UniProtKB/TrEMBL annotation:
Organism from which the protein derives: Saccharothrix espanaensis (strain ATCC 51144 / DSM 44229 / JCM 9112 / NBRC 15066 / NRRL 15764)
Pfam annotation, one family: OLD-like_TOPRIM
Segments forming domain OLD protein-like TOPRIM: 418-479
Protein name listed in UniProt: AAA domain-containing protein
Superkingdom of the organism of origin: Bacteria
SUPFAM superfamilies xrefs: P-loop containing nucleoside triphosphate hydrolases
Matches recorded under InterPro entries: ATPase_AAA_core, Bact_Antivir_Def_Nuclease, P-loop_NTPase, TOPRIM_OLD
């Protein structure tokens, strides 16, 4: 079985989170206490690796006792052909693990529900009860052991159902659930890392046919031995109770293989014995990194193709779960972790889920594989995911546009406001002008800047962000509507609808000029030119005033400066020289200061 996504209800802060994807890798991002670790623990509960406690049940004041009535994690699984044939199930199934106030978990599968209630949950029944049910419904089983009885009764229940719903999952199907290998970054515990991955391999070993046969033989021998030991007790009951003719004690023995511990013994090249807990964080970090890297080899060592045993089936999915693996790691080691994670995810049967704060890890994957978890006003985890099936507008093309304009995944997820500008000049000078006007950088204010550069795709990205509740402002020159069709009012309305005027700002319109360069007065231009591009006789405000009211102020100034200076300044560099020489917030044109103030409000 391959887990594609899972949903959680009633688990810690995850009162209702749906469709967390399982990819290679999936990145769970978000602030502290946002639900990242809870999401990994819920995954562990689904796969049988986490024991539910009272504190795991979501606190809901309206519910009896303050806790939710039901905790459930629902997984959507894809079954391989062997599993479909073995369990007579479709290719796609929904399986949940749930528990009520008694904290006793049970597996259930969505599908036809047996009309008879006695057939709805067979997993807890003993062999005598199963035999009695088989007799009642006229089911003949060649070999009436528990496994064959369960299969026969489950199939009968499906054929005699009253509709779809949740009912008991075939116990043998639990053996095909994905294996979970958990790595926790907080502890820097190489032994725990080794134990986690060896536990996965141990389960694979135990599932092999020859091992299962030996375990079954041991269980049978133990059961027969216990029967002999119970014989005197049975005889004594018959002797003491005259109304009882015979007593038979039936035993059902199960040897559950468990990897109890792994101990790591180190010896330096000099022969010195080393205690791991005394070797220092640096050594523990290097050893953990080696363990994580070595995990890739172990996980890739599953059989495939012709090596698959037809009795055991193909290898099951392995999900490697990392909880903040970047903790205690410097930038270099964070990159190493990302490399290891990518390598692990390349194995056909391996998926990786990473809970992290690391921008390096978040930016290293496709945006569609990043899940943002954060708390709402009611202290409940909510999920945001760009590019999911529900957000079909964010396709691969928009992801490429985001990357091309310099918007990393971490920026798309975390920044509070997005500022789209017309082109290169604005991208160059807006950070300087904003910092002077507002006393902080765009980044510190939580504002992400990108240039449209005449690309309609950038507007589609702005449209997508706006539609999903993100604050967006588009700042363009007043004359751009006539010059570039993507900035015409009709096109902007198509992108932003009734919010067009709120989202788009025509720079210079209020001041009666056509472009950004014209907002700076002639004295400022002359002072800048004399310092940056001196000429014989110097520059005066009149030199620049002569270009106002002409077809293109910036074009006229650019040509004039190039005619009198060997540096041949281009338009972006011209305005940058102006911006770096401004000293006071008041030196920034008033129309720009108002726009920057509005941006601060949006970001806040």
């Amino acid at each position: 079985m391959h887990l594609g996504k899972y949903s959680v209800r009633g688990f810690r802060s995850l009162a209702g989170v749906t469709d967390i994807p399982i990819s290679s890798p999936t990145i769970l991002a978000g602030p502290n206490d946002g639900g990242k670790t809870a999401a990994l623990s819920a995954l562990g509960f689904l796969l049988g690796a986490h024991t539910l406690t009272e504190d795991d049940r979501s606190y809901l004041a309206a519910e009896s006792g303050g806790r939710c009535a039901l905790t459930e994690v629902i997984g959507e699984f894809h079954l391989d052909p062997w599993e479909q044939d073995r369990f007579r199930l479709p290719a796609e199934v929904r399986i949940r693990r749930c528990a009520e106030a008694d904290l006793v978990p049970r597996y259930e599968i969505w599908g036809p529900v047996p009309a008879d209630e006695d057939l709805r949950d067979l997993s807890g029944k003993l062999v005598p009860d199963l035999k009695e049910l088989a007799t009642r419904f006229g089911i003949r089983v060649p070999k009436p052991v528990k496994a064959t009885l369960l299969d026969a009764l489950t199939e009968y229940g499906r054929e005699h159902s009253g509709g779809d719903g949740w009912s008991g999952m075939p116990p043998a199907l639990a053996d095909r659930l994905p294996r979970l290998a958990e790595f926790e970054g907080h502890s820097l515990d190489p032994e725990a890392a080794i134990r986690s991955v060896l536990a996965v391999r141990f389960k694979t070993y135990v599932a092999e046919e020859n091992v299962q046969r030996r375990v079954h033989d041991l269980e049978t021998d133990a059961s027969d031995w216990l029967g002999i030991q119970a014989k005197p007790l049975a005889d004594h009951i018959v002797e003491r109770c005259g109304d009882i003719a015979t007593v038979t004690v039936q035993t059902d023995v199960s040897f559950t293989p468990v990897l109890r511990s792994t101990n790591l013994r180190l010896e330096r090249a000099s022969g010195e014995q080393v205690r791991l807990d005394h070797s220092g964080r640096g050594s523990a970090r290097r050893i953990s990194m080696a363990v994580w890297e070595g995990t890739s080899e172990l996980l890739a060592a599953e059989p495939s193709g012709d090596e698959v045993d037809p009795e055991v089936g193909p290898p099951v999915q392995v999900i490697v779960a990392y909880d903040e693996p970047d903790t205690h790691l410097d930038y270099h080691f964070q990159r190493e972790v990302m490399r290891i994670i990518r390598r692990q995810g390349k194995a056909e049967h391996v998926s990786v889920v990473v809970a992290t704060h690391s921008m390096n890890l978040i930016d290293g994957v496709d945006i569609r594989d990043v899940v943002l978890l954060k708390l709402d006003d009611h202290r409940r985890t909510v999920m945001q995911r760009l590019g999911s099936a529900e957000h079909a507008a964010f396709d691969r093309h928009l992801g490429a546009i985001a990357a091309a304009v310099g918007l990393r995944n971490s920026v798309l997820l975390h920044e509070r406001c997005f500022l789209a500008v017309e082109g290169e000049t604005e991208q160059l000078v807006f950070p300087l002008l904003f910092a002077l006007s507002e006393g902080m950088s765009l980044q510190a204010a939580g504002i992400a800047l990108w240039g449209c550069n005449g690309n309609d795709g950038a507007l589609n990205l702005a449209k997508y962000l706006h539609e999903h509740g993100r604050s967006v402002m588009l700042v363009i020159d007043a004359d751009s509507e006539a010059k570039n069709k993507i900035f015409r009012q009709g096109n902007l309305t198509r992108h932003f609808g009734q919010d067009r005027e709120k989202v788009s700002r025509m720079l210079g319109k209020r001041s009666g000029v056509d472009e950004l360069e014209e907002l700076f007065d002639d004295e400022t231009w002359a002072r800048t030119a004399n310092e940056a591009w001196p000429r014989d006789g110097g520059w005066t405000p009149e030199h620049f005033a002569a270009h106002r009211g002409q077809k293109k102020f910036s074009g006229g100034v650019e040509y004039m400066l190039q005619q009198h200076n060997e540096q041949q300044p281009r338009k972006p560099a011209m305005l940058w020289e102006v911006a770096v020489r401004l000293e006071r917030p008041e030196d920034v044109p008033g129309e720009l200061r108002d726009i920057f103030s509005d941006l601060r409000a949006l970001a806040g």
